[in-house]
Amino acid sequence: MRSLTCIVCPIGCSLSVAEGSPGDDGAATLSITGNHCHRGAVYAQEEIHAPKRVVTATCGIRFQEPDEGSGRNRSSWAPQRVPVKTVIPCPKEKVAELLVDIYNLRLTLPVRGGDMVIPNWQGTGIDVIAVRSVG
């Protein structure tokens, strides 16, 4: 018996999940109780069989040297990193690999909130976007 807290809506139902005997497809059947709506049952099924997470992180900025005589220089208060997130959840077993790619990424300013910084990561359909405008 596993206990989960549903995160789909603000109610936060306490779910109890019991695994039954394997079905025709080889996956164990689940008995889910405690959900107040059907979304809780769907959440528990996914969390047990194929957990996914929206990934939030920050990536670095590639600073360019200012042109001589332009009068521009990098401010000491300028942000050093850009917050990013995945548009759709990533399979939990691939999160660490995705984070390595995000942390190795260096963006050239300006970056606008909503800009795609990694399209279709490794062919998974997962896009990574900037969360905030910087520069």
Which keywords apply here?
single chain, 135 residues, alpha+beta, CPE0013-like fold, 2 helices, elongated
Helix and strand arrangement:
Layout lengths: L1 E4 L8 E9 L5 E6 L4 H12 L2 E2 L2 E7 L18 E6 L3 E2 L3 H10 L1 E3 L7 E6 L4 E5 L5
Parallel strand pairs: 5-8
Antiparallel strand pairs: 1-2, 2-3, 4-7, 5-6, 6-10, 9-10
How would you explain this protein's 3D organization?
It is a single chain. It contains 2 helices and 10 strands. The longest helix has 12 residues, at 38-49. It has 2 domains: 2-50; 53-67 and 78-130, CPE0013-like fold, CATH 3.10.530.10. It is 16% helix and 37% strand. Strands 8-5-6-10-9 form a 5-stranded mixed beta sheet. It has a 3-stranded antiparallel beta sheet with strand order 1-2-3, with helices on one face. It has a two-stranded antiparallel sheet with strand order 4-7. The chain has helices spanning 38-49, 95-104; strands spanning 2-5, 14-22, 28-33, 52-53, 56-62, 81-86, 90-91, 106-108, 116-121, 126-130. With 135 residues, it is α+β, with helices and mostly antiparallel strands.
Fraction of helical residues: 10-25%
Number of discrete domains: 2
Strand segment count: 10
* Backbone shape: elongated
Distance between the termini: 50 Å
If you average the pLDDT, what whole number results?
A: 88
Low-confidence stretches: none
Strand content: 35-45%
**CATH fold annotation of the largest domain:** CPE0013-like fold
Largest sheet at a glance? 5 strands, mixed
The main sheet orders its strands as 8-5-6-10-9
Helix count from the secondary structure assignment: 2
Structural class: alpha+beta
